[in-house]
Amino acid sequence: MDVARRSTMETAAGKGRRAGPMKVKVVDENDVVVVGAKASDALPLPLYLTNAVFFTLFFSVVYFLLTRWREKIRTSTPLHVVNLSEIVAILAFVASFIYLLGFFGIDFVQSLILRPSNDVWAADDDEEEHERMILKDDARKVPCGAGLDCSIPQIAPIASPKAVAQKVFDKEVVISTPTDFSTQPLSEEDEDVIKAVLSGTIPSYSLESKLGDCKRAAAIRREALQRITGKSLGGLPLEGFDYESILGQCCEMPVGYIQIPVGIAGPLMLDGREFSVPMATTEGCLVASTNRGCKAINLSGGASSVLLRDGMTRAPCVRFNSAKRAAELKFFLEDPNNYDTLATVFNRSSRFGRLQTIKCAIAGKNLYMRFTCSTGDAMGMNMVSKGVQNVLDFLQNDFADMDVIGISGNYCSDKKPAAVNWIEGRGKSVVCEAVIKGDVVRKVLKTNVEALCELNMLKNLTGSAMAGALGGFNAHASNIVSAIYIATGQDPAQNVESSHCITMMEPINDGKDLHVSVTMPSIEVGTVGGGTQLASQSACLNLLGVKGANREAPGANARLLATVVAGSVLAGELSLMSAISAGQLVRSHMKYNRSSKDVSAVASA
Known about the structure:
This protein has 605 residues and is an alpha+beta fold. The chain is 43% helix and 16% strand. The strands form 4 sheets. Strands 7, 8, 9, 10, 11, 12, 13, 14 and 15 form a 9-stranded mixed sheet that branches. The longest helix has 31 residues, at 84-114. The radius of gyration is 32 Å and the shape is extended. The relative contact order is 0.10.
């Protein structure tokens, strides 16, 4: 810190030479921070002139040597015979090449290595590549998550407004000292980069490609954000995460990561196999309640599931000059005689994407075409979109007047509650059922069969109908789906349609036992691509035995994951409905879902 606080005059006098174009920025009454000293300041010429000299030298000697060697070839003179001028030219070529490589080459190579792929379809199309990336075969020396530093760092005091004052529009920026927010000191080079980000010289989104270090880029972006906003991110972890793994595919401009606890419900006995179900949630009682449902299912012999459909959808919107013309394309697409041709065009896009059906709907002169295809172990949104684009390009040959409005016309329908998904299905359509013995209902679930069936009819069926529910004929399927999706690296936003569920309960065996089932027509999951390759999420998939792509039967892992989701929803529905029937819901949440901290004391502190 003593070195950093010296004034420019003292430094210049101590060294006996010009100090260079250092900049001094006074942050408060006592501190002076010296910034801006660069290695290029030691050059005898300004940097742009030095670059110009070496550029000129490099191309001049290249031209000279090529001319000389051409003459030698014409006169049959050996190329290794050189005179003094050629030796000087060769030395000048090597020197200029080394300079230019050192100045430009390293950054260029790093940017090539770190640049994200431009092929937006690569995540779904090449499952072998994903398998190589995520299949570590449990080679970690510590369990996933054990290496994370879960301790919450102390939040540094917020810098005074005087120290963090910003004048962005007139380019005058006063920067707070590094110690205002940072938990560790920053190097002078990092300080220069932070200044460049604050002034707009370096865009924040380009830090990874310019620095070649994803973690360092996140740290610098985080520090710049704290100085701009005057707010501390001390409680947001930075260390202990592989930022390289999310570059170009999971998250842009990271400044840290969120910690969500993962609990285990189970074992869940499903189709003769036991599964320990990972659930990432911050809602108290959720894992415990699902675990109780798993216990009731296990004691009654387990649950069974049936996969009804497996197909991801995409529905582009196209427009014609007349409704008649739109209808002609509709009839063409739905004609069985044209299916083979369309399937051939569609299937060219992927080794795993296979066209299943095309269903069309017309609104005036606009046509919505809902393509459905299998997608292997990928969730498959990109895969089906790629195939649809191929078909649209093909249709332009015979329907040149077709105007493509959008690759997605919301008839798919993705991340929105929609009747088409509830009726036709999207992703995996699964039914899961179990017969719960009467004594298990009484001893484990603390209620009775008659009360459960009455509650299900009046709450999940009648009550949901009164509310105008769309696919929401259940108690809390969304809770379980969201928790499993976050734990296993699925798209959390697809919880919307994936949670479509109708829960049915009825007494059997003369009213002694309970038959319970959940029907879920649109579970959208995958075991490759997206967040499934991250270390923590990959570990949770591995726990379920569905990590990566299935080599023997492509798509089997994703289908199995869908049935596990449905089985877990069955357990969660059974337990929550029992708690409501027995009047235990409020008591359990008051006991397990409330913070034990003295909130008033924390607020006053």
